[in-house]
Amino acid sequence: MNAATSTPSAAKAYCFDYLDRNAAAIACLNDNIFYFAELGMQEFETAKLMTALLEEAGFALERGIAGFPTGFCASFGSGHPVIALHTEYDANPDNSQISGIAEQKPIVEGAPGHCEGHNVNAAVLIAAALAAKAAMAKFGLAGTLKIFGAPAEEQLVSRPYFVRDGWFDDVDVAFHNHIAGNFRVGYGLIQAALVSATFTFRGETAHAGVAPWRARDALDGVVLMDMGLAQYREHITPGMRMHRVITDGGDQPNVVPRRAAVWWHFRDSTAEGAGKLFEQARRIAEGAALMSNTKVEIDVMSAVWPVRGNRTLAELVEREIERVGLPRWSEEEDALARALQAKVNVAADGLARAYVPMRGPSEQRTSANDAGDVSWKVPMVKLYFPATVPNISFHHWAAGVPLATSIAHKGAVAGAKALAAAALECFGNPAVVEEAKRTFKEELGGVTYKSLLPPGQKPPLDLNRATMDKFRPLLEKHYLKEKPRFAP
Ligand SMILES: [Zn+2]
Known about the structure:
The protein is of the alpha/beta class. The chain has two domains: 3-190 and 307-476, 3-Layer(aba) Sandwich (Aminopeptidase); 193-304, Alpha-Beta Plaits (2-Layer Sandwich). Helices cover 40% and strands 17% of the residues. It is built from 14 helices and twelve strands. The chain has helices at residues 9-21, 23-36, 44-56, 118-139, 158-164, 218-232, 271-292, 311-324, 331-343, 372-377, 397-400, 406-428, 430-444, 465-476; strands spanning 60-63, 72-78, 82-87, 143-149, 173-180, 188-189, 193-202, 241-248, 259-268, 295-304, 308-309, 380-386. The strands form three sheets. Strands 1-2-4-3-5-12 form a six-stranded mixed sheet. Strands 8-9-7-10 form a four-stranded antiparallel sheet. The protein has a two-stranded antiparallel ribbon with strand order 6-11. Zinc ion binds at residues 116, 118, 153, 178.
């Protein structure tokens, strides 16, 4: 089969022209979301803006899907193939950063900020959706384009619930887009599986100076669980990782805490391994509760399978990446990149100048993404697009610097072109969709996908609410007045 011969090139040319014509609107959307700086589950302004643009363009909107107030599904067209595009749009805590300067300076001290480029992911998703839809309508391409907005990626929450609740049941193939320092696509296992759970210990208070023997110390439960897992670290397999933050350690030293909580992440290269690690942690938590005379409640906030890439789709996307090419960076953009790289002591080689083609399957990383479950349900690839400074690590102030500059703006247009073209290829060439489904079956090798979420598990609606309530009024002062307007 030669997919390239049936490429609907006129539709792609039309779609690229649409994106070039709307570059200013894409940049404006990107920057609006950057300044919203909303944490996971609290992306209300972001989702409102994204869904309004889709609705205005003629997509049918379903908001609040799978119990997520800031999640959505937008559809255009009818019948098969059903091509899904999905991405995230949440910010990170305590990483507010002024864009465009190579020094650490928050927009609002202590506030959340985009430092992983999910604002750009969102702009690419919407731009690609509008462009692909315009081309579908113009060239009469049959099928359904489905756009999913996935909340709280930074806490790896939403997509396992979407898949569990059937939102991907009729999808043929899916594409996920994510910012990077260069274009990249891969196949095989790409990221790790992860179980995210909170352990809340409950005991009884007492005056720590006067009658400590009356207390049952919930913080002891947290500490003993920590010690248990520290001992267990010797016996984990090399791909495993576990890390935690204590989210509640009591109020003051002379009141023995009756409530204490710790939030753990358990990772492994396989879903089975992450599940096993979590089960061991559960036993250790129960042991800690026994030792501290407390009770423990365990809440699995989310549990994700490792992201995998389908080879057929990866090869398809690679052809589109080569067609689009890297953005042409200006001297000023490259100078900002080099200054930033020098500032944080990484190789100061500026912005990406050449695409590095795939050479065999991807190397699996220890990062995770809640898109993982989608990639075991249907053939999927993750398209990384160049819109940030290479060598800079995410979840750090420096990663916020490029995100509302022309580096992000040019990268968003390039990313949207590759993503929209990949979708159009699937609509214009249904054989490639069938081929992806065939190779996907082979790639799964008999592994049956089964959600790692406990039965009946509900989304964590209060996640990040208190932090956003505190910072939103301060961030609002920096919201952009100008709103994106896309020309047909
Ligand atoms: Zn991300």
